[in-house]
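Tutorial handout. Part one gives the primary structure; part two gives the three-dimensional structure as tokens.
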Amino acid sequence: MEAPLLSWKAPTVENVWLCGANKILVDVFLFYSTWLVVGLTVKRLLVIGCPMKFSFKCSVKRAKRVVYSIGLSSFSIACLKLKYSGYEQDSTFGFKPCKFQSEGSDNKVVYVYIALSTWLPCLLIFIGNILLIRQVRMSNKSRYELSGEYTEAIMLNGYKCTNCRQLIIIYDFTADKGAVKRFNDTHRMLGLLITVSITTLVLMLPLGIVETFELYWDVVLIKKPSAQGPARQQYIKWQQEKLLLKWVRGLFFSVYQWAFSTNFFLYCLTGRKFRNAAKNYFRNRFRTPSCCSKFLSRSFTRIRCQLSKLTRSYTTDIEMESQNNNRVCDSPETTKDHKHS
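Part two.
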């Protein structure tokens, strides 16, 4: 019964180079995706923390250099698996691991691998998100404090109301729509980045915990095989718990791979430039028939019309509310009350 099951695994195990390529590709995808999120977090933190210094230095050419350097570093770290087997010295699924002139596993290299793949990115993402949230709160506070000149302008024009913050927002919206649009776009992209970072952190942290605990289980709590006596029972129990840890590690690794589809969905949902670039890429790569393209274009135009109607109604409601607030402030009753006061 086991021969048919092992027949499809045999080419991967017997072909050493194919097995090594599989190990390298898995580690490259793991390191590359994780450290790209770390790079985006650090870049956004530098731009928001020191906008006058780093906003001009963030160009497409430098972004490509950073992406290429992260990819090259990930490939170099993944190639260490050809020398040090790591966890594959006793595989989760029970078939023989591939080794390139290596006589086992060095625990120090496994420590470095776990730190670079899970714990160090998690720590950097967590600290970066905390600093980002703190910086955004400080910028909002300073923005409200610096908007005192708007209150003075409103007071000089005769508008005196108790809810001055609402008037400030209305004044900002009507006076400088471009600034408000840039402010909203910045905060929307920041919210997207924080969402992607927290998603990566939540999906990657359990994998790091299980890998660390499994390494502690293999190094500190190791049991030697014995033929008889209580030592044999302890060894059997240790092997059973070790196998359970291996399956849990495989489960959390598959859960972490959901981060790829989750990030793509978040970028498509909130990023207009990313959505247009993805649409153009798939449109050029996969040509749809004329009937399907007409149906899709009609559906998109209908959805776009409905969205434009909703936005128009929302803007008219805002304008009517601002006009009502101005009428209340300009009414003779309020002016009399202010004179008596």
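Part three, for discussion. Residues 218 and 242 are 8 Å apart (CA to CA). The chain has two domains: 8-256, 289-341.
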